[in-house]
Amino acid sequence: MHSHASENLDEVQLVRSLTSMDNVAYLDSIGMTGPDVVLAHCIHLTADERRLLAQTKTAVAHCPGSNFKLGSGIAPIPALLDAGAVCVIGSDGAPCNNRMDMFAEMRLASLMQKPLHGALALPAEALLNMATRQGAGVLGTGGGDIVVGATADLIALEPAMPHSLGGGSPAGALVYAQTPANVRHVWVEGEQLVENGAVSGWNWADTVRGCTAALSRVRQRVGL
Asked: Which of 54, 67, 105, 165 would be a feasible disulfide site paired with 85, CB 3.0-4.6 Å?
């Protein structure tokens, strides 16, 4: 089950006015917490709500690019992790993110905490874990790690590019220096979908034509 929660202050205040409860506390009262629930954003939380998310093993999908673009605030990810909550990386939808680039989301997630908590806050290793092992665990894909028996969801990266050459530790390079331009190969459940930087799993030109046609239909319907 999935919902947005505590993304902005107006939402939190509305829930309190309607239910006399904090947002996450109300969701818990109707069964909308637990290991099978993913709540996006979770920016404006009380200390009790942070503990509740940790106790119920409710996953928090952190979407820093969207939070920045909409001016929603900064999610208390370090405090959530310290409380034992499950946190993963998301992007939110296209209108409030545009790029939906998980490399950018990892980088932003780490950098946005450092003015508040210091340069060592939310290090690259923690972000990489949130984006891979934790994310796969929450979605139940069976991947997220390179071990025997895991789903063969893999990407191969070229580190020696102008923007990422000498990027430091592997985790640091992935989170702070590399971008989708570094991706050379992609396998999903063992099937190669990107080879030498080119999409091989489907016809990319057909995808672009379909998206362009769909966008034209939407614009016509709304009079743009």
From this structure: 54
